[in-house]
Amino acid sequence: MPSAVVIGTRGYPSYYGGFETAIRQLAPYLADAGWDVTVYGRKGATVEDDPGRDPRVATRSTFGIESKSLSTLSYGLGATIDAMRHKPDVALVMNVANGYWLPLLRARGIPTVTNVDGMEWERDKWGKAARAVFKTGARLTARYSDFLVFDSLAIGRRWEEEFGRDGSFIPYGGSPHDDLPVEPGLSTRGYVLVVARFVPENTIPEFFQAVDRLAESTHVVIVGSSGYGGELDQAAQRLSERHRSVHWLGHVKDDRRLFALWQHAGAYFHGHSVGGTNPALVQAMALGAPIVARDTVFNREVLGEHAGHLVEPKPEAIAGRILKLLSDPAEQERLADAAKRRGAAQYTWDGVNAEYERVLRLAIEGRP
């Protein structure tokens, strides 16, 4: 029975972000395939009574410093030290910030597969020092990781240009779902939805500026927060107090509720600009949300030519494009159908999980 550990997520099962979404799918898949799987995480960051939790997946919490700038590094070090003690057959490492600890795993003879995520050093939320930390982590990842995983083709091209490394393209998958009930107080195709962490590179400030115009004629549902409080959380609170049609739900951990919000939305705004393939966008596609997305190379890659509308990151452009879509039921349904078909063809969890297992086995075998 091959053994694998996962380093760099908040744990299993967790609903925090894209890495956690992937591990909720991948860990049980590996267990089904006969793997011994352990996921490292943070105390209090997982849903222990989750009915979907697979008891075959072992979990282990390690030490770390809970802060915006040090949590990833410190928890990654704690997990790495513990993994060195147990010496699994392979380590799946998430995030280049953990590149600092890859030399330790290599010295212990543990092969590594690293999901590099997006270009973290280009994110507006990080200061100069944090960006330097991520860029150095990327260089160390390029040097010391045995295999690399890119969640988008565009990210893969950037890594080949900047670091001279290639790797495997493994995006995120989406989960289709039967019809779910519409959120109380809302109507099918009668509201605008945004689902995102409150950081500038997700176009949250621009979307919030567009809300005053949108709220005049439609409901606006905001899912997300910064995770640490701050100016954008306060802005969301003010919008919900100023407009009865604005609903700020914070972080939604219930997948059924979140899936229903995507399924019945009249327009889903996706403003992510820095990462590669975004799991929220792929999931929205699987559920047939009519999508308006910020025009980036990553969003164009995922949506293709027909599965969504692209827009400049300007408040007036965002509001105008969304209002036009809400006034056109035929276009809403065309986009919904196109998104479902593209998701089913390109972004499924079966395909994602099978490719991860293939690369993990190659790493164990020491094959290029």
Structural summary, described in words:
It is a single chain. By secondary structure, the chain is of the alpha/beta class. It has two domains: 3-172 and 348-365, Glycogen Phosphorylase B (Rossmann fold, 3-Layer(aba) Sandwich); 191-346, Rossmann fold, CATH 3.40.50. The protein has helices at 18-32, 71-86, 102-107, 128-144, 153-163, 204-214, 231-242, 255-264, 279-286, 297-303, 315-326, 329-346, 349-365; strands spanning 3-7, 36-41, 58-61, 90-94, 112-115, 147-150, 168-169, 191-195, 219-223, 246-250, 267-270, 291-294, 309-311. The strands form two sheets. The chain has a seven-stranded parallel β-sheet, with helices on both faces. β11 (267-270), α9 and β12 form a beta-alpha-beta unit. The longest helix is centred in the last third of the chain and has 18 residues, at 329-346.
Strand order in space, largest sheet = 3-2-1-4-5-6-7
Give unreliable regions as ranges: none
CATH architectural type of the largest domain: 3-Layer(aba) Sandwich
The largest pleated sheet is described as: 7 strands, parallel
Please estimate the helix content: 40-55%
Mean residue pLDDT: 94
Structural domain count: 2
Gap between N and C termini, in Å? 22 Å
The portion of residues forming beta strands comes to 15-25%
Number of strands: 13
The ordered string of helix (H) and strand (E) elements is EHEEHEHEHEHEEHEHEHEHEHEHHH
